[in-house]
Amino acid sequence: MLFVILSLLGCTNGKSDNEPPKLIISKQSVVIHDISALAKPFAFEKTMNKIVATAGGTATNSTEMLKSMIGSFADGSFIHPISGKVIEVKSRPLESAIDPRNLLDPASVDGMIPVGLFNRFDLAPADGSNCGEYRIVYAKRSSGPIDRMTMIFESRIPNPNPSKGLEGCAPITDFWAERSKDTNSAQSISALEKLYYQGIPQVEPIVKAENYGLPMGQIRVNLFKTPKPVEITWTLREFLVNYDSDGRAILKPEPVDDSPVASLFRATSASSIFSEEERNNFRQSFLGQPLCNLVNPDRINKKASAADIINGISASFDPRFNDFESISQGNIDNPATDTDPLLLNQVQQRLASLSDLSGVSSTQLMNRAGTMTCGGCHQFSADAESGNNNLGNNAFWPASLGFVHIDEKGNLSPLLNDFFIPQRIKIAQQFKDKRTAFHQVKALCPGEAPATESLKIPNVMKSREHELYKGVDSIRKKIENAIQASDAKPDKHQLDSMLKELKEATDIARKQESATQGAYAPVRTH
Q1: Is the pTM of this model over 0.90?
Q2: Are both 205 and 98 inside the same structural domain?
Q3: Is the dihedral of CA 486, 492, 494, 497 positive or negative?
C-alpha cells in the first residue's frame, strides 16, 4: 500500500520521478581543442583588444601593447623585482623582429591562432578567494622545428561571492559543467565565448586586463624561433599586464613561477651572482617546504599510484630566486643535472628524516623538482633515456608533444590526456555533486606546527572587495585619476611613484594568494 501511495505521489526512495538525472561530467567540461571552431570566436586580436579596452590608463592599442612584449625579447637581462639582482637571459633576435601586426593577423605565417580552452578550477585555493584559472592557448599558425611560438593567456578569476568560500565559484563551475550536455564543440564554444568576453549572470568576463596580473593571473610565452637551436634554445617566459611611465598598458616581463635560477642547484661558481649566504638561504628554503611538497602524495598514501604522485606533487620555490626564463631544451635548467654533491647529501638526509616516506631517492627528488619548473614540465623531465622522468615509487613523468602540451593542430600530450585531464574531470564532477573540495591533506614538514586556524572566509559579497584585490584596485584608481586629470601627459615623477606602489601591492597579493593551501592540492602548480 505504501509503495502505491508513493508511486501516486510520484516519489520512491525520497526522489521525484521528475528529478533530472545526475550530470555526468565529460572532457568537454575541462578542455576544448577544436581549432576550426575556435578560430573566429576566440581570435587573438579579439582577446588583445578586450585586454586593451579594459586596462584603463593612457590610450593605446593591441599593436603597441604587443610591442612591449616583443621588445623585451631583444634584452639580455632583467632586474629581479624582489631581489634587485640583474638576471641574465639569452636575447632572441628572431622573436624581437616579429611585427606585432602579423601576430594579430590569422592569415599571416606569424599569426596567432587559438588551439585550446582550459578549465583550471583545480587551481583554486581552499578559501575560495579566487576560482582558479581559465585559459586560452594560442599558437603561431606556421610552424617548423625552429619556428614555433605559443602564448597562454591564464586568467585567474576572482570569486563572484567570496563570502560563500569555494561554493561561491559555482556559477563558473556549473557553466563549464553544462558543456558536457552540448552536442558538439561548436555549441560549447558559442557558450564559452559569452563567458570569456561578455560575462554571464553573476560572473564578469574572463578576458579582462586585471585578470592577467593585476594582481592575479599571467601570460606565458613559449619561444622557439631560432637560427641556432644549440645556442638559442626553446625557452618559456612570463608576462603581467602593467603600465609604462606614460601610463599606457603594457606586457611586462616577470620572473617565471617555480623556476629557480639553475646555478643555485650546482656547486659554487665564481661567476655566480649569488653570495654564499644567498645560496645557503635558497637551499635551506628548498630543503624545507618545497621538498615536503614534492613527496606529499607518497607520505599521505603508502599506496599512492603513479597518477596520485604526478597529480599531487608540487614545489613552491622561494620566488626571490626565480629566473626570467625557463629553458626546456636539454638539461641546462634541470635541477637533477650536475647537482652539487653537498646538496644531494642534504636532500638524502632530509628524505631519511621523513619516517613516513620510502621509495624516493635524492636523485628522484631532484627529478621531481625539475617537473615543477616550466622547462621540466614541458620537456626535459619527460626524457626517459636520461632517467629524468623517474620520480620514484614507480611513477614516471609522462611525455609532452615535443616542448608543448597542446600543439598547433590542437593535439594534446600524454601528460594531459592520461593524467591531468582525468583528474580535472574528477574534480569537476565532485564539486558539481557536493560543492566541496578533496585532496586537501598535507603531511607536515619536520618542525612545522600543525595549523590551528580554520579557513577564514571574508564577509564580503563582491569579488574585488576581497583583501587580495583592494590594494591593487586602489592604486589603479589613483593612476587612472592622475591620467584623467592631466591635460597632456601625466606627471612622470608622480606616475613612477604610483607604479612602484602598484608593483608592491601586486607582489604582496600574489605572495599571500600563493601561500594559501589549494582546494585540491597543498600547493597549486602548472
Answers
A1: yes
A2: yes
A3: positive
Residues across the chain? 526
Q: Does any domain span residue 305?
A: yes
The Cα 404–Cα 409 span in angstroms is: 12
Same domain, 397 and 415: no
Contact by Cβ (8 Å): 464, 163: no
Cα end-to-end span (Å), the chain: 58
Residue 526 lies in a domain: yes
- pLDDT (average), residues 500-506: 95
Residues 222-226, mean pLDDT to the nearest whole number: 92
Same domain, 9 and 120: yes
pLDDT band at 488, cuts 50/70/90?
Answer: low
Q: Is the dihedral of CA 382, 386, 389, 395 positive or negative?
A: positive
Looking at the structure, do residues 267 and 199 belong to the same domain, yes or no? no
What residues contact residue 328 under an 8 Å CB cut-off, 6+ apart? 233, 234, 235, 236, 374, 375, 376, 378, 379, 380, 403
In a domain, 448, yes or no: no
Range of the domain at 324: 261-405
Cβ partners under 8 Å of residue 41, min gap 6 = 189, 190, 192, 193
Q: In sequence order, what DSSP letters do the residues of 424-463 get, joined into one string?
A: HHHHHHHHHHHS-------PPPTTPPPP-SPPPPPS--SG
Clarify whether residues 175 and 299 are in a common domain.
no
Percent of the chain with pLDDT over 90: 84
Query: In this structure, are 497 and 424 located in the same domain?
Result: yes
Count of domains forming the chain: 2
Residues 236 and 186 in one domain: yes
The grid coordinates of residue 191 equal 557558450
Do 308 and 326 lie in one domain? The reply is: yes
Residues 229-265 pLDDT 10s = 888 899 999 999 999 999 999 999 999 999 999 999 9
Pick from 91, 102, 92, 118: nearest CA to 31: 118
Q: Three-state SS across 36-86?
A: HHHCCCCCHHHHHHHHHHHHCCECCCHHHHHHHHHHHCCCCEEECCCCCCE
Mean pLDDT, residues 347-373 taken together: 97
Confidence of residue 439 (pLDDT cuts 50, 70, 90): low
- Does any domain span residue 228? yes
HSE-CB for 141 with a 13 A CA cutoff? 16
H helix runs in 213-256, sequence order: none
Residues 6 or more apart whose CB falls under 8 angstroms from that of 350 comprise 287, 291
What distance in Å separates the CA atoms of residue 227 and residue 146, rounded to the nearest whole number? 7
